[in-house]
Amino acid sequence: MAPPVPLLAVRGSDGTSLLRGPPHCEQHEAFQRDGRSSRCVTFSRDGSLFGWCNGHSVSVVRSSDGSLVSSLELPKTSLIEFSPLNKVLVTWQPYSKTQDDAQGDANLQLWDLTGGGVLMKALFQKKVQSWCPVWSDDEELCVRSVNNELHFYEKNDFSSIANKLHLQKVSDFALSPGNAPSKVCVYVPGTKGAPSFVRLYQYPVLGGPAAARANKSFFKADRVVMQWNQKATAVLVTASTEVDKSGASYYGEQTLHYLAVNGETAQVQLAKNGPIYDVSWSPNSSEFCVVYGFMPAKATVYNQRCDPVFDFGTGPRNAAFYSPQGHILVLAGFGNLRGQMEVWDVKKYKQVSKPQAPDTTCFFWCPDGEHVVTATCSPRLRVCNGYKIWHYTGSVLHKQDAAPGTELWQVLWQPFPAATFPERPVRYQAVASELGTTQAPPAQAYRPPALRHLPATAGSKLHEEEAPQDLRAPADKSVSKAALKNQKKREAKKAARQEAKPEAEPEAPSGPAPNANSQSEPSSGDPETDKKVKNLKKKLKAIEELKEQQASGKVLQKNQMDKVLKEQQLLQELEQLLISQ
């Protein structure tokens, strides 16, 4: 049986539509396009249901045939979400109160989809942060954060709270994926000199530090991001501060921590200073990729022991995306970067393609593991709105620009259950396409105008680029020992042969010895002018070195900053001297 064709939801100022693709995208014949602008669209976890709210009502239809499942008259609804087994629909609208009603209305509603959209429970949720309750995959457990407490509900019974976890000022939590037993990771920010900490509990054993399966504390944390792997064996915690007290970065400081269900904890050691841009678990749950460091950023894959496995070197990137099957990794530079994508075969650690998608604001893998979508959406960018569907080899298969006077707000692939799309062998040759490919052009280092007529030197590079490096140990140690023994024998024989050869006498110079300090630079004939040019170039070289140190994170002293500020003046003086020659 052939695998299904995924749907792509497109939401914009001109309405909401469902497209059937890839490689070519056409309107889903069973879905009646909604011409009113929607505030939110979403699929259920298995992709069988599609819901949207358009300022008049909340509608839920079946993705396969477009038949209506439920329609709710909720004009103020801004966010909607499905429970994992499609039993509950969650809706949220901004909290408001009036002079006549100081308490306001409950703005978080839980609707029973199995019973035709009957209201199950109405709750108060003032903040949009962590607005939606979180379920385990089997819906046996539901967790919600309320006033520094975690409230646990069992079997979708919201009439009573089955259990509570109370820690002082709990500000965030992450429930593990999968079925029972469920684990929950909680974050408590530090106060009055006490460190922040993250604790990992297994339900229903909740309580103090003694009940925790793992515990990790750290001082540098104003907020955290917690990410479980798919097998629910470990969680990665990215801790961030708002301000970098060293002054090296205005992004603040970030550290990455690892907690395992078996109690192991560690801080992931990164090979370059600077921000942590992205952390992504592989779908196999045994590896994760980190993009970090001052630009050009590094990207490294680590195993579950937090040992580096493969280093991708440096490049203009700030995001990492594993394919749903985990066999391909895309390293990308979006946002304030130029949209370069590096597509890698993860098993061979070999680069497949290097396309470029400028002005991209969002990127999503198609569930088939063969295609991706990149889009330029408002309000992040209000010009050049549109989306492209690519094959991972770099070919553009479909392109759609927003109509004049309209904006694109969101694109979203239809999800599918695991194993719906099997892993296919990685291709290295670009697939055929009428729209062609967009390979990234080679980057050219910037050179000041006064020095562009001079020959380029190796020292003129602004950044030292690092090449990819495989850090994996040899798989078969017995073979490695034999190979190492043979290599030593060959090296010993080579050394013996070289010792037996007589040393070659140096050739006599045919002319006067060249001056070690001589340069292939044009001379003006005026020794004083040549001396001034040489001194100016020496000062400019020192300024370039100071700028490189500053880019790597070093804080310059006042006299060093004064030198850097004089760069433009020195360039003008050098240009005048070169013109007068």
Structure commentary:
It contains four helices and 37 strands. The chain is mostly beta strands and 581 residues long. Among the domains are: 158-267; 277-356; 523-581. The strands form nine sheets. It has a five-stranded antiparallel beta sheet, with no helix packed on it. A four-stranded antiparallel beta sheet has the order 3-2-1-36, with no helix packed on it. It is globular, with a radius of gyration of 30 Å. The chain starts with 6 loop residues before the first strand and ends with a helix. Mean pLDDT is 84; it is low at 475-479 and 502-520.
Quickly list its features.
single chain, 581 residues, mainly beta, five-stranded antiparallel β-sheet, four-stranded antiparallel β-sheet, 37 strands
Question: Nutshell version of this structure?
Answer:
The chain has 581 residues and is mainly beta.
